[in-house]
Amino acid sequence: MMIYKPFSFSILISLLGGLATTTHAQSPSQWHPAPGPLSTKWAKQVSPKNVLPEYPRPTMTRTRWQNLNGLWDYALSNKEATEAPATYIGQILVPYPFESALSGVGKKSTPDNRLWYRRTFTVPAAWKDERVLLHFGAVNWDSSVSVNGKLLATHRGGYDGFSVDITGSLKSGENETNEVVVSASNPLRSDVPNAQVLGKQRVKPGGIFYTGATGIWQTVWLEPVPTASISALKITPNLDTKTLKVTASLLGEASGAKVLITLLDGKKEVAQTTSAPNTEASLSLSSPHVWTPEDPHLYSLKVALMKDGKALDSVGSYAAMRKISLGKDAQGHNRILLNNQFVFQIGALDQGYWPDGIYTAPTDSALKFDIEAAKKFGFNLLRKHAKVEPERWYYWTDKLGVIVWQDMPQAFDNHLSAESKTQFETELRALIAGRHNHPSIVMWVPFNEGWGQHDTPEVVSLIKSLDPSRLVSNASGWNDFKGVGDIVDTHAYPGPWSEIAEPTRAAVNGEFGGVTMRVPGHMWTEDVFGYGATLKDGQLVTKRYQALMKRAYALREERGTSAFVYTQLTDVEQESNGLLTYDRAIIKPDTGVTRDANLGKFPPLAPNPNPDPLPTSAERPAQWLYTTTAPGTDWFTLGVPETDWQKGVAGFGSGVGEVHTEWKTSDIWLRREFTLSANLPSKLAFSAFHDEDMEIYINGVLAGTAKGYSTDYVTVPMTEEGRKALKPGKNLIAVHCHQTVGGQFIDVGIVRQ
Questions:
Q1: Contact predicate 366/580, CB 8 Å
Q2: What is the 3-state secondary structure of 233-292?
């Protein structure tokens, strides 16, 4: 974290005005969440007296601290205001964002306003004669901090922590009441040259974009430190040399002081060394116990600032011995290696949103739950997408054993101003410095799908200079720069697919899948966004997931692909393509089958107990009659001679989808007889994967059409005439598909609505 020291006295003169009044106040017992469309089970555990009580910085711990999470007064002003309003209008539960239900406010984003916070605190008498630091995990996006009416710091950046030395602004005397005022403006600017780094936040959510998270959204806390203290640790393993590199930065002056660094395995001391502050020290291990997802071994670390045999300051931390690199396998494919061994990485996209907390998980247990769920599904990787999490999240990935690819949140305009590029670099540097010590992070991803992508070779070079110990993917999806970085990353929906591994870069599929399923009662909105047809039940999701993973494992061998990232771990607002619902209450696919598929095991699945009237071949491969020569004008009617038609299993196609029968001509005609029971559902539709134009007939009646192409199974409405043509007993479905360019594919089924 960056430490901000107080400004000079001339700058402090009453920029924030005098003490304001509050017209609305409530006791902690009166607080309650704001109304919201959906909540998690952890929301019931949240109260003003129990708000994220865990020490928030597990990579540099101290025993003495004061948590400032809880109820603060809040107000709104014009976004350009430099003084707090005279009146505060209510209370907000910190650190939940303004828009969240758990904040107690739960209102829409206000990009044209500045949000103001105020609370009082007292400094324990035992902290006398020490420096007092005020820490912020993250404030979104443009913030200021004042104590007792004095402006002490401003900060821009919604994802990095910062600290303010407030010692000189505290009131003298024991048990004096002090006031802290924080302001935050979140412009949510995404489509202009001065676009901010904002990830997936939007003023108007929809599709793949979500609710904004304005203001304080990570823990706020006070901490006493000596006049000379340890301000930061940088911990870097080197498995090849069997050493752990540690740098302890010094805040203040301590002439002649040394840093004593001790590494422990459990209670056993395994290495110790002494170095000067701000200097890299090296600890040697004769037999390092390496960190892997199966065995996420962590060492304990003690760091003390020593002078004349006494500890001026001390902090605790942890470390792991692990290496991430590239190397060739026996087939000559360039692979991602973990500890010099190829580990096939199967992961999920993780956006880190919560229905009741938006950016902020309700509790630490909730943070942990997502990572445990990923492990139960058989994932060894999470791609942290368009967001940076609180350090506690990475602590759990370190401790539980999940590899992390860390995105830099995006700015979205592709013509960023020089000012925006500078701000992007500032926040990128803060991300790398702030999360460097977490061994689970193995890759930095500066850009995603071309959003705000700029100066790619220069940005990759910067990241490599800041952290040569990790891999860099120059861009996940779309705008790859050949030969730049360590990874060539393909996005394919539904996919999966990847480029071929290159001599100097490994190939990965950074996003695929997106299988969609609605679960009424567990949805943020009735609107649904996903990829392909919306499946009706978990059995179909399970089958679809298994089929996707079969393809992933085939690509591992065919194209030398090192990793796959499935979209996604949970639903997010209108996106209903998670393995878990947004409230984390419902698991959509069978966990055991999903885990087996992620491990490369594909046992036969039990029959669907509630099958569709005519399943597609994605669920149950079926035989059709087909011809690629134009048939007679009555080809779609019952009773037509079929002696010139061939037999083949759907889907039919080339270069797209799961092809069972090759089709490469411009047109194909299909016929299939099927039997229906007497109890037909009243509402039916077609499920079709079509590339390109398609007409569907039922018993000689035109029942559905679709133009263009789809990239997966989509729902195609059935006409009223087509529905009336269906009857109990034997029926005929006939399909014509016309192809012009590119890949081609056709498969059709009938599904319940």
A1: no
A2: EEEEEECCCCEEEEEEEEECCCCCCEEEEEEEECCEEEEEEEECCCCEEEEECCCCCEEC
Residue 37: inside a domain: yes
Are 266 and 218 in the same domain? Answer: no
Q: Pairing mode, if any, of strands 744-752 and 652-654?
A: antiparallel
Kind and range of the H or E element at 32? none
> 11 and 83: one domain?
yes
The answer as to whether 396 is a domain residue is no
- Average pLDDT (477-505) is 95
H or E element in which residue 725 lies = helix 720-725
**Per-residue CA distances from 26 to 51, 88, 104, 127, 607 (Å):** 17, 12, 11, 30, 57
Report in angstroms the alpha-carbon separations of 232 from 2, 39, 62, 227, 506: 9, 37, 12, 15, 33
pLDDT in tens, 417-437: 999 999 999 999 999 999 999
305 plus 164 within the same structural domain: no
The pTM for the full model equals 0.90
Q: What residues contact residue 741 under an 8 Å CB cut-off, 6+ apart?
A: none
Query: Quick one: 637 exposed, middle or buried, by C-beta within 10 A (0-12, 13-18, 19+)?
Result: middle
Residue 79's CB is within 10 A of a number of other CB atoms, namely 17
**Number of domains the chain is built from:** 3
What range defines the domain where residue 293 resides? 240-319
Tokens 């009424």 belong to which residue?
A: 520
Q: What is the dihedral of CA 392, 395, 396, 397, to 10 degrees?
A: 120
Residue 440's nearest CA partner among 406, 476, 389 is 406
CA dihedral (431, 436, 441, 445) positive or negative: positive
pLDDT the model gives residue 14: 32
pLDDT in tens, 580-592: 999 999 999 999 9
Largest distance between two CA atoms of the chain: 101
Same domain (yes/no): 207, 256:
no
pLDDT tens figures, 357-390? 999 999 999 999 999 999 999 999 999 999 999 9
What tokens were used for 395?
Answer: 């602590």
